[in-house]
Structure formats: structure tokens, C-alpha cells
Amino acid sequence: MTVTRILVGVKRVIDYAVKIRVKPDRTGVVTDGVKHSMNPFCEIAVEEAVRLKEKKLAQEVIAVSCGPQQCQETIRTALAMGADRGIHVAVTGKDYEALGPLQVSKILAAIAKQQKVDLILLGKQAIDGDWNQTGQMTAALLDWPQGTFASEVKVEDKKLCVTREVDGGLETVSLTLPAIVTADLRLNEPRYATLPNIMKAKKKRIEQVTVEELGVDVRSKLQTVSVEEPPHRTAGVRVENAEQLVAQLREIGRI
What we know:
Elements: E1 3-9, E2 12-14, E3 36-38, H1 40-54, E4 58-67, H2 71-81, E5 85-90, H3 93-97, H4 101-115, E6 119-123, H5 134-142, E7 146-156, E8 159-166, E9 169-175, E10 179-183, H6 195-201, E11 206-210, H7 211-214, H8 242-251
Parallel strand pairs: 1-4, 1-6, 4-5, 5-11, 6-10, 7-10
Antiparallel strand pairs: 2-3, 7-8, 8-9
Helix pairs in contact: 2-6, 4-5
């Protein structure tokens, strides 16, 4: 089985090492002047797509990202990892602030049809919103089979065999292409982009399109009422024995 094209979603998020700060007006988190990078689960998805191509199981890997101009930096990272070309879907202003899984799913579905892709690889979730919905919604919009939380992807008998991480252990599903797979943490370890590949990535093509050109409505029906910091944890209490522990638990109403 050979996949003609793989579409990989790459999201630009606040770097995992950055301490998140809530805006004074509580409408969101501070993003200006804050380091951003590719969502870690998206890195895993890119790595898997590139590995399929290296095994001659895919012919082309396309990286796509939705958002402002800075998203092209994230696409360049994917290109340096081995993706062949990129698509930047320009979304700015209020539309970008309200961009959620449903809106992104509509964009991905439209691009998948336009580019005639056989496989969509996504991270299982992004570390900013933790929605874990985009892959499933995209599969529903396209009416494609899906293998979510993938810890292993193999090609067997002209089908895609995906080992999924579920609450009870592991589950293996067989998918007929076209299909959608979302990457879990243990699927692979993403490679570092080497300097020569970073230089080569600068010459690779990034196509810029708008949601209007794709015919997608990205208006959101959700409204953020308030963004709050989690409550500060109070200091614990040291107890000498089980009797004191039971007394403390009774005092705070836990038993």
C-alpha cells in the first residue's frame, strides 16, 4: 500500500516551558512577547508522516497550520523535519482568538478534499486548550475511519493497523484509507531538525490561503466568559499517626 499524500496538522502554541499568565482583563492568556513552538503532539505526527515516507509508504507530506503569519515558522519546522511543502491558512483577529476544534476541523476537511490526501495525521490534542476533539470532528466531517491515541502505526494487507491506547490497555483497529490518525505520546520520538535541513526548509514552498478561498465559515458560537488562574495550593499538615489523620479528614469534611 502506498499513500499518495499525507496531511499533517501543526499547531503553534505557547512553549511548554513558559509559565502561563492570565491577562488582567481575564479574556485570555498573555501571548505577546511569549515564546511559541510547535505543539509536542504535532511533532510526533510529523515524525510519523516522515517515517512513512522514508519507508516508501507515502509519496508526499504536507504540513498545514491555521493562524497568523507567525504560523509559517511552525510550518518551517515541519519542513525541516522532512515535510515536503506547507499550507498556511491565514486566520487573524477575532476569528483567530475564537478558533476552536470545529473551525479547524472544517479547514482540514476542506484542504483534504482540495489536495486529495489519503491520510491525515494529527496530534491527539494541543497543550494549550487540551480539547482532544479536532481529529474526531474532522473524521466525522469527511466520514473517514479514525484511529485515535495511536501508539503504533503499521501497514498490513493494504490496510492501516493502528494500536490505540485506551483505559483498559491497548486496542488495535484496522483502517481502510482514506483515514485519520491522531498521535499519542508513545508513537515515536521526534527527530531534531539539523542545520542543513533547516536551510533546505527555507527553499520549500509554503502556500498561503484564506478561509474564504476554502469556503469555510470559521465563526464560533462559543464565547469565553472569563479565564481564571487555578487556586493556589495551601500547605499540607503533618500528622504523627493514623488517629490524627482521621481527625484531620473529619475536620475538613472528607469523611
